[in-house]
């Protein structure tokens, strides 16, 4: 697993991208109080967390109504501890007029599941749109997701909770079938592709919409991993690419793609 350590929880990890983007030209985090202080604050609110103290960095994302989602990132850890560009693009797409139904909220009251949630930003934004969300990732990211959920609870109009989910394992406790499954930059490790596709097959119903946002990378084995993902995807799913002009007008890039994916009938 890759490890990142940088002053802004951004500089080192961003080196995997081939292109800079308008929304990533400056450091995307500012140092805030220690993670131990973050934990203490959340424990006061009745949320159980057990993480060890470390520094955290704040990433703020302004929503279309002017409210600000504040996401804490860790200064060091695995790739899930920071906010990636694809997560920002998908978050802004979820609240865009192109995605919302005319005269209403497309996500309001819907059951939404995020896989590989990391910091939880995409699921939290979905919850601000009225969705009932479960953000999932490995055990070591649960504390970070819980803190970010609690820190943004005043913006949530649906609901949001964090759960452990390891791709490829049983998903019995994650029923009923979600209306939407969210994926942001999960096409990354070759060894995770088959477990990811198994989990998608286990979780999806015929009407489940998977929104998969990923950055197309050209370095190293990334093109090979991307090709393999689509080979596996086509076995059980059909998909369409969301045109770039339907992405958020500011938070978009030609090398970040959003797919709408459904089970084959």
Automatic annotation (TrEMBL):
One GO BP annotation of this record: methylation
Highest rank taxon of the organism: Eukaryota
UniProt GO MF annotations: methyltransferase activity
Pfam families: Methyltransf_16 (PF10294)
Organism: Xenopus tropicalis (Western clawed frog)
UniProt keywords, alphabetically: Methyltransferase, S-adenosyl-L-methionine, Transferase
Lineage of source species: Eukaryota, Metazoa, Chordata, Craniata, Vertebrata
Protein name: Protein-lysine methyltransferase METTL21D
